[in-house]
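Proteins fold reproducibly. Look at a sample protein:
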Amino acid sequence: MSSALHSARPLANTVIRRSTEKLYGQQAHIGREAQHRVIFLRTGQDKFFYGVATSVAGAGIATLLFGATRLATGNGKREE
């Protein structure tokens, strides 16, 4: 069971990362800060803190919540 869960994690991370990249049109990176999974959006050399979750499922939910918040406040708009 543990090995199946371990092998599913990279796939889940990839799905979350690609979904975030499609949503914002920017390169995303999933890293770790202490005990938390952190989603970063990368623009050039700058890495922006994006969301924190304690699990892969939580990271996906955080992506959606932060995305909805940014779009609602106008912060998620890309400038052409």
